[in-house]
Amino acid sequence: MQHQNSVFHALTKHIPWPQFERLVAERKADHRVRRLDSKSHLLSLLFGQFAGASSLREIEAGLTSHQCRLYHLGAKRPARSTLSDANAKRPWALFADLFAYMAGEASRPTRRRIADATRIIDATKVNLSDLSAEWARFSADHCAAKLHIVYDPDSATPLRADITPDNVNDITPAKALKIEPGATYVFDLAYYDYGWWAKLDAMGCRFVTRLKSNTKIAETARLALPKGSNILSDRIGILPQRMARSRRNPMSDPIREITLRISTKKVIRLVTNDLDATAEDIAELYKQRWQIELFFKWIKQNLKIKHFLGTSENAVRIQLFTALIAFLMLRAANACQRAVVQPGTFARLVRFNLMHKRPIDALIKPWRQPTIDNRQLSWKFEQC
Fold first, then answer.
1. Suppose 95 and one of 116, 166, 302, 321 were both cysteines; which one would form an S-S bond, judging by CB atoms 3.0 to 4.6 Å apart?
2. Residues 355, 80, 19, 314: what is their CA dihedral angle, to the nearest 10 degrees?
3. What is the pLDDT of residues 278-319, one digit of tens each?
4. Is 101 helix (H, G, I), strand (E, B) or coil?
5. β-bridge partners, 260
6. Quick one: pLDDT at residue 380?
7. 372 contacts: CB under 8 Å, gap ≥ 6
8. How many C-beta neighbours within 10 Å does residue 344 have?
9. Residue 210 neighbours by CB distance under 10 Å
């Protein structure tokens, strides 16, 4: 009889295990570890993500009930206390490095010339309990963290991620971002910083963002408007030369202001350093920013980033990066089959069949374990 592994086992094939082992060695993540190595730790947290477990005790109970199937995964059944200690002490950078490597590999097939690359930058808030107040206190009665993402709309893949307390301004991690010369960056009003815009412009990057309603520009030219479009005005000008405290504005090059009416009838002002593209192309670029909002909505609905298994900064970071790794695994597995088109439906079917022995491309249709016929007799082997 043909052997069939579990759905969970098929998902883990999308993890670059040789690279993971190199990262474990570099970070010394298994130094003096006796009970739960990094691989078992990662697989336990991924099981919790895919199965929708809401506590460490659920992960322990779920893996205990399927202990006979952990052998082919190369994992050990963790105790709740051991898993809690690993979340608190194992370096979160190990999971961040694995995510960064997998994100780079996921975007490789759709990479274009850097001049055609688009990067959307945004952040989403993740609420935390009061037990995380030591590092994520936002107000007297509120604790939260921010998940900062650089998103590639061409490959529908998060490329980079950073996690900060909620009181950190969005522009702070953006300034530390490694800029790709020549790329196009799209972002919203949270990244309103003339100094950063000037840095992008100096690196040969194109940027598209919103312009605040009280920002006035000195008009130098007015461009013709396309007929029958929602573009209300298109002009070239100079930003204010002085900022607060009489500081000189570092963004002194000409910029372009495009005013348009969006589908909700609201009028918005876009600003870009691209003086040559059509106004409709610029508006379409900013419209792509909606894709990262859909990404945030999807991971919050389908992955475990609303309820956290630990309260320390290290545990929260590990869980968020594990969720991003799980997203890349689901995306890769979904691309390998054609039976289920919708990613949300595929994620739900994975949850229902996670430890069942069936092919990853047979989650939605009836499937029977193959039987063997010998001497006109047929035995159906029981699944473990």
1. 321
2. 130
3. 999 999 999 999 999 999 999 999 998 988 999 999 999 999
4. helix
5. 231, 268
6. 36
7. 1, 378, 379, 381
8. 12
9. 18
Distance CA 368, CA 14 (A): 25
Residue 317's φ and ψ, nearest 5 degrees, are: -65, -45
DSSP state of 376: T
| pLDDT value, residue 357 | 87
Model pTM score: 0.90
Residue 13 and residue 98: Cα distance in Å, rounded? 14
pLDDT tens digits, one per residue of 77-121: 889 999 999 999 999 999 999 999 999 998 876 665 655 789 999
Residue type, position 36, single letter:
L
For the chain, where are the alpha helices, taking DSSP H only?
A: 7-12, 17-27, 38-51, 56-65, 80-89, 93-107, 133-136, 171-175, 194-202, 279-287, 290-302, 313-335, 343-352
The CA distance from 362 to 350, in Å, is 11
Alpha-carbon span 99 to 260, nearest angstrom: 38
